[in-house]
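Re: beginner question about structure tokens

> Can someone show what the tokenized structure looks like for a real chain? I only ever see the sequence side.

Sure, here's an example I had lying around. Input first:
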Amino acid sequence: MSNLKLKLFICTSITHKLGKPDEIAKLQGLVETIDRTAQQRNAVTWCAFREEGWKGEETPTVYVPRDFGWAKKCDGAILIPEDSWGVRIEEGWLSALEKPMLRLFENEVVHRTGIEEHLGILSRVFDGVFHTTQDIEGHVNEFIDFLEGLKI
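And the corresponding structure tokens:
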């Protein structure tokens, strides 16, 4: 196994959460759970939401090139799609770049489009449902196991 750290791109929805402190705090907790689990496995993460101080204040001229750069450099991505078209754009980038993805859904898998439902044609896509932080940790660990298997 390689000694290089895995690089994970965490993609989240934020636009519809701005001005809603409870929703921001919940999403921040999800990202922190993913990040903590990744760090325990010696992986590094990139996340726009965290990078922007949990505020989502950057303009597209800043975040589009930054996020696309992360998509190109990552070994895999962990997405919390919710009702976000921005995350779906990132899904498109990642699938075109043939990057493995773990999509996390609270309570049930929800695909908003037919394209989203069939992204696995171009790249490996895993859907995980969570109810607790332990569920998230388990999905993230399984995804990291998969990515590490690719690096052997």
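Each token stands for a local structural state, so reading them left to right follows the chain. The longest helix spans residues 21-40.
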